[in-house]
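Might you be able to check the backbone structure tokens below? Thank you kindly.
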Amino acid sequence: MRTEILIALIKIRQYMGEELFRDRRLAGTLEEALGELLGNRFVGEVGLMLRLYMEGYPHKMFVSGATAAYWIEQEATTFARRYYLQEPAVKRALASWYFLSQLTEREVSDVSSDETGAALAVHLTRFCKKQPASLQKSLLEILGRSAQDFEHLQTSYGQQKGADFADTDDEFDSEDCYREGLRLEKDACNEQDMQEAARYFLRAAEAGHAEAQLSLGDLYYHGRGVARNLAENVRWMRLAAEQGVPQAQARLAWNYQQGQGIARDDTKAAYWYRKAAEKWDSDALYNLALFYTEGRGVAKDAAQAAFYCRKAAESGLAEAQDLLGLMYYNGSGLPKDNEQACAWFQAAATRGFAEAEQHLGVMYYNGHGVPQDSHEAARWFSLAAEQGNLQAQLNLGTLYLNGDGLPKDEGKAAFWCSRAAEQGNVEAQYLFGKMLLEGVGVRANAEQAVQVFSKAAEAGYAPAQYALGDLYSKGYGCPKSRSQAISWFHKAAAQGDSQARKRLDEMRARSDMLNRFRDW
């Protein structure tokens, strides 16, 4: 398009005369303005020249290039706005077309007979070809031309000026479309705006723009601006990944890992995570660490897991910092070091990562790597509990129940235990069931206690299985049932619960005694 700028300036000088450039002060200001406007391509220069010509060189209007740039930004799209056209490429071309018609005192539809107009026709033709038929027709009607006219102009002008000018600067155009898509996506107020953003991303993506392919893949995954389509999400992510975009490589790996839009394949997931990890993508480094930890798609290797986890942690990823803390705590792939574990838990916790807050609370409570401090433990448990961490909610409830590091408060203990119980924590279900049974912090309710114990018992938690068996044996909060009691005692005993074995022995002995009595 810089060739078009040059042509425009030559033609303007031809039509307007050398006197335009005789005022050196004005020419200097003009040069400054054009330098700032070079990114606007063609329309800015023509618009500025036109205003200077029509207004009789209004010096005060252009006291700085910035002032000129602002005015051009407002003026250059007037014609395009009249027809509700938001496409950047056609804005430039149509506005330039309109300004050129003013300069040459020709009809808008007749501008293409001029050399500069023919250049614009080439640009418009290529744009029209990429649009829906209805928009193509609308554009051609505005300009009073036919598709055949534009085809002829493109061919003849391309032959006359050579391939360098006849070829559109696709890289610039695709970048322009991509940036417009980003702007529309950022400012989107409704689904229609997102559809427009998706259209820009699609044009840029089809031209091979890697970041646009990534953005379009995201839209297909979330169903924003386009119908949700996981297969299309994978297709565009793959294209961007193959061009080396690390975010796309990491997301394609995730697709393979989850079986989203493509057959699940841990080996291919590991391959793409490694590709992204080579570019230091923090999510890829973290996920690759998990793969080596679990032996998914790669041979299990604690040292490799620690290597990738450290790289992700050093990039500031809280999940990786927490995992690295656990590796130090457990001595997995690294020498066991509670102080290092605390340091990484602290790094992740200060970023608000709930799991790290919970782990740091445990370290303070047990005095591992830091001086023992129940009050500090309670503070970290509280932060994690507020974010919904189940274990932290249970731990906080236990501290309130025992008055450990916090003032004893049975009501708050019941509240936090019930929160964790509602989310499926079996230890919390068992503890809250006991509180309901005994009326600790809540009104006693044996029937509700049975319901809570049942959830934990069915999940395989032995203490809850024993408690439920005991209630069935007594008929407390539920109908008395010897068979149900024996069933739950058996399940608890199978997990090594000594109380359950003792109760079964007692029930068996009682049964034998009754049988002997009947025989007698």
